[in-house]
Amino acid sequence: IQQSSTPYQTLYMFLDHTISTTNSKKHKMVLPFIEQFKQITLLDKNIELDDTIKYNILLKICRRCIFSQLESIIDIFDLRAIENQTLATNFINEQIEQHQDTTFIAHMTKILRLLESDAIPLEKIIIPLVLKSQWETIKFIVEDNKLFQRKLLQTVDGLISTDK
């Protein structure tokens, strides 16, 4: 840790190291530290983090920490701020496009919800969550068969329809 590090840079380095070197049960040791920084943010809003650190917060910390810690981390690092919205939205969009893991996509979607952003179309989030794990099988079955394509659309429509 450099002497010129801000408290936020120090917190980021601590969280990054702690979360990357502990299993999920030890995440509880991070909670008091997060709570302390929540108090600091009430007094000092001058975060002074560059986009690289903010991106790494999203990539490393938000991806690995348990969901109950996300909102506090988002608040501490002010990821809801207008100047950070594009960075966070682009990151989540990129992660949804790159990952096949539906659990991870769900986690990114929860982060987006915590950021109170609707910048990514709902379909882009929901469809992978519904179909991602079995998409190759569905494509193999349906292929170019118009009847199967129509039935698939009707089935998906029936799953999400609120007219019942």
Description:
It is a single chain. This protein is mostly helical. The protein has two domains: 7-120; 131-164. The protein is 70% helix and 0% strand. The chain contains nine helices and no strands. It has helices spanning 7-21, 31-43, 51-64, 67-76, 82-98, 102-114, 122-131, 135-142, 146-160. Helix 3 packs across helix 5 (82-98). The radius of gyration is 20 Å and the shape is elongated. The model has no long low-confidence stretch (mean pLDDT 74).
What keyword list fits this structure?
about 160 residues; mainly alpha; 2 domains; 9 helices; about 70% helix
Task: Summarize the entry for a quick read.
The protein contains nine helices and no strands.
Question: Shape, please?
Answer: elongated
User: What pattern of helices and strands is seen along the backbone?
Assistant: HHHHHHHHH
- What is the tally of helical segments? 9
Total strands: the figure is 0
Query: What structural class do helix, strand and pairing data support?
Result: mainly alpha
Kindly state the percentage of residues in helix. Answer: over 70%
The total domain count is 2
What's the end-to-end separation, in Å? Answer: 59 Å
Average of the residue pLDDT scores: 74
Low-pLDDT stretches are none
Strand count, sense and barrel status of the largest sheet are:
none
**Radius of gyration from CA coordinates:** 20 Å
Q: How big a fraction of the residues is strand?
A: under 5%
